[in-house]
Amino acid sequence: MNRLASRVSARLMRMRFVVIAMLSIGLGRVAVAAPGADFIDDAKLLYRVAACGGDAPVDAAIQKTVERHCKLVMDRITKFREVYFDKGRAWFDKVEPPDLPTTVVYPFGGGDLLSALVAFPNATDITTISLEQAGDPRRLKTLSPAGVDQSLSALRAEIGGLISVGSNTSENLSNQQKNDLPGQVSSFLLGLVAGGYEPVSMRYFTLDDAGTVHYLEAAEIDALDSTHGKSLKHDWKPPSFSPAFANVEIQYRKIGETQIRVHRHIAWNLSDDYMKMHPQLTRYLAQKGKVTVLVKGASYLLWRGDFSIVRGYLLDHLAWMLSDSTGIPPKFARQAGMVQDTYGLYDGAFLEGAQGNQTDQDFVDLWKNQRKRYLPFRFGYVDMNKQAHLLVTRPKKR
Question: Domain residue spans in the chain?
Answer without folding.
Answer: 269-398
